Amino acid sequence: MNDNQFENEDLKNKDDSDVHEKQENKENEKEEPKQEKSQEQDSHNENKNDSEDKKSSDEDKKQDDKYNPFNNKRDDEKRRVVGKAVKVNFNFKGLLMLIFIITLAVVVPSIMDENKNQQIVDISYSDFIKNIENKKIGVVEEKDGYVYGYKASEVKYLETKSNSIKSKLGFDGKNEVQGLKARLITNRLGEDSNLMAVINNNNAIIQSVEPPEPSLFLSIVLAFLPYIIMIGFLVFMLNRMNRGGGGGPQIFNMGKSRAKENGENISNVTFADVAGIDEAKQELKEVVDFLKEPEKFRKIGAKIPKGVLLLGEPGTGKTLLAKAVAGEAKVPFFSMSGSEFVEMFVGVGASRVRDLFSKARKNAPCIVFIDEIDAVGRKRGTGQGGGNDEREQTLNQLLVEMDGFGTDETIIVLAATNRADVLDKALRRPGRFDRQVIVDMPDIKGREEILKVHAKGKKFASDVDFKIIAKKTSGMAGADLANILNEGAILAAREGRTEITMADLEEASEKVQMGPEKRSKVVSETDKKIVAYHESGHAIVNFVVGGEDKVHKITMIPRGQAGGYTLSLPAEQKLVYSKKYFMDEIAIFFGGRAAEEIIFGKDNITSGASNDIQVATSFAQQMVTKLGMSEKFGPILLDGTREGDMFQSKYYSEQTGKEIDDEIRSIINERYQKALNILNENRDKLEEVTRILLEKETIMGDEFEAIMRGENV
Prior knowledge:
Acts as a processive, ATP-dependent zinc metallopeptidase for both cytoplasmic and membrane proteins. Plays a role in the quality control of integral membrane proteins. It is built from 25 helices and 14 strands. By secondary structure, the protein is α/β, with parallel strands linked by helices. Among the domains are: 117-152 and 177-215, 2-Layer Sandwich (Signal recognition particle alu RNA binding heterodimer, srp9/1), CATH 3.30.720; 271-379 and 390-438, 3-Layer(aba) Sandwich (Rossmann fold), CATH 3.40.50.300; 444-514, Helicase, Ruva Protein, domain 3 (Orthogonal Bundle); 525-709, CATH 1.20.58.760. The longest helix is centred in the first third of the chain and has 43 residues, at 2-44.
């Protein structure tokens, strides 16, 4: 015992010396960075207090970075952080791994105990007594409601605590037992008088093993494991709902705006990336000048418009213009769709409007862009919900926020829509959206400029002429033109060419307008003749009436949903259209049906003219009801409905409505008869154009005009 005490004291002294040395090392390590830090602080700021030297080197470094006036990143980081919610990422996989490790720690020992117990053979209670009487069992052990028997000569025993029975028999408890196993009839070995008599008569040794005490760590783990699992699952579900997992709403960020901030809040788009809408760009350059130099306007008392409303057809570049304004002014750009304000929960839209403008004020000067504002800016009082309509509450909050801008706040609200007629008047009045910029469809010159902008980064062959493509794409917006160039690049790459040719762009143009060619489609000879006569009838009527849109191409190759088509292009850009234009166009649309009736008879006309009839009827209806081109009604508006009226009620009598229908029918019948007369007078030209079309499948405009003039092709 003395030797052990000396050894323990030596170990204790050694541990104390080690601890003392570690503390000295830590103090030395602290003193070195303190000295270095004090030198840096003396060089940068001699007024630092000596008490700050007691801080750790890492903390001092963080404090220096935070308060360093020469740290250029500080303001940028503050701007990026403003208005953003701090998001804590919960690592659910780590929790699962922790639970798995704890489960292994609990289960593995049990499995090892089971493997150890597999060496013991189960026998019946009566066989167990017989083995004692036959001297096959020399040691008896009670454990967990079972009695175990072993040969004393083969097993060494470990020290165990003895019970009262073992003490009475004088067992010293230095051996541990393994061998045979049987279930006790009673709960305790001492209560079984029969078994005790057999053990005493045969001088067997009794060993009672108390159940092992679990470790403290394992007990704590088992006690808290259910709670850990429940808390982890709860945190996982809350985090999933917060992120909007599974397509659900963001429960805890429901009232936060979903405004997207471009990168570091600055748009990379400039006015150089916008073409074909010079007038709109000029209007918005004043906004850029105000954001860059607001004092120049304030000195003379000028006030920049609080809101600018961009009006135009889809694809004309309204969103691109808004981004260009932010990019030119180098200010933060918040973009949000009008449909993102309103959710199924009441009050969410108004809350998101408040949050959006709160972010904007913190990041001023900045630009707030609301795309498709008609989703929340429609006229009030037309919905079924009345004043409690969620959309109207959102609109009211938007009106209040736009009125709340001070004269010193440099926040510009840009909004885009293609439905200006449905917007609420309070939204469009001066003081809110007090400037409206019309973004028109580009003309020929504008389309050419747009094509050149989108051509950057692409390789073109020498035969490419953007003027021709611009002429063929009348009525297309900038998005359509960009799609044409992209489709041409895809076609060239698919054919293995390194440059985009003019043929690729022409094919891409027709693909965007009409759909892809269907050369592999099997068409019967009868259907081919019907399509050929139909398309020839369109072209011939166009040539005879002198249509303003000249025939550019006639083809019977199926494309998209059309079995064939006649492509006509305008000779020049038009701003207004005459009555003669509409009357000629209606006759041209009926040229295909008229040719089918002449060649195949009234009973064999087909459904190929369904779209022609739809467009011709629309032209005639607009002539009568909107354009005042009817001789019977004269210049009067008979549109039939008021804008924004949800019940679409008419404001003219039933008798007037019947007369309108009769007038439209009269125009349709007269122009259809005009097409029949033209084709009957030019029956030979109809047969010749159809014959050549059946042979070649495609006739270009120059060839068609030569046929009509009687020249050989």
